[in-house]
Amino acid sequence: MVGRLREIGAGLPPADGVAVFNRLYLTVTEAVRDRLGGAYFADPAAMAELDTVFAGRYLLAVAADAAGQEPPACWRPLFALRAHPGVHPLQFALAGMNAHIQHDLPLAVVDTCLRRGCEPAGLAADYHRINGLLAEVETAVREQLMPGPDLLERAEPLTHLLGVWSVEAAREGAWSAAQALWELRAVPTAARAFATALDCSAGLLGHALLLPLGPHPVPDAPGGSPRTADAPGAAAGTADAPGKAPHAPGTAPDAPRRAPDAPRTAAGRLPEARNRPAGEGAGARARPDQAQLECSGLPSA
């Protein structure tokens, strides 16, 4: 897994949002690996298996995106907004942790228990022991990502963002979700509904974590004046006319304001499906993503 994460990172630009999370995840995975040979964990073999199954869900999301397919809903905001210039690297790190912990981790716990023939209680002590390790890594990563030329401009919203999202709280929630999934394993319909709810709620929170925190510079056209893009999804070269008030919040801008090649996905709305099956319209009922269930031992639809 460490080798695969290094390979993914080597193939991405350093500023890419997925690359930012990948570096964080590599650091965490290396830290867990380095403690498997000592007395840190009560059951190193179980933790090694859980860590591998857990990482496999992130690798499924990476593979789906590389193949032009949609990753699970929890991962879509990060992959869709990975190149947005108004999103701070720390936001990418938080969004990746949110997707991986809030959705992938509960399913990985259930999958590991099914594979090992144990109950979640058998993993509880080591699961919570990782919280201390993650706290150390998270502190180091925040110190690395916070400094920068835009620190004074963005420090206040970033500080607020850090205050409302906690890796420890996320892991506690994931543990409760894993216990619920374990109890629901004999009721496939309820288990599928619960897993889908985890996926969607993590996706919504991830989208909120990636909203741009302030104006950011936009490359000027030759001979043009400096501009900033204050609103998510603003197209290059579409400055308001002098004296014209911007459109009201919650309403769409006039058609001429959108560039022909403007991306379909922007902060402020969730991405659309890229590979909708033939004959399935935009209003068709959403179906649970098979990727979120295939490693969990839970029946698919």
Explain how this protein is built.
The protein has 301 residues and is mainly α. The chain is built from 9 helices and 2 strands. Strands 1-2 form a two-stranded antiparallel ribbon. A hairpin with an 8-residue loop joins β1 and β2. α5 runs antiparallel to α9. The longest helix has 28 residues, at 89-116. The two termini are 30 Å apart. 32% of the residues are buried. The model is unreliable at 215-301 (pLDDT under 50).
Q: Quick summary of this structure?
A:
By secondary structure, the chain is an all-alpha fold. The chain is 53% helix and 2% strand.
Give the helix/strand layout.
Elements: H1 2-10, H2 17-34, H3 44-66, H4 76-80, H5 89-116, H6 124-145, H7 151-164, H8 167-184, H9 188-209, E1 216-218, E2 227-229
Antiparallel strand pairs: 1-2
Write out key terms for the chains shown.
mainly alpha; 9 helices; disordered C terminus; 301 residues
Distance between the termini: 30 Å
Strand content: under 5%
Structural class given helices, strands, pairing? mainly alpha
Please give the largest β-sheet.
2 strands, antiparallel
Shape: globular
Strand order of the largest sheet: 1-2
N-to-C order of helices and strands: HHHHHHHHHEE
As a percent range, the share of helical residues equals 40-55%
Can you count the beta strands? 2
State mean pLDDT (0 to 100 scale): 76
Q: What does the oligomeric state look like here?
A: single chain
Low-pLDDT runs of 5+ residues are 215-301
* Count of alpha and pi helical runs: 9
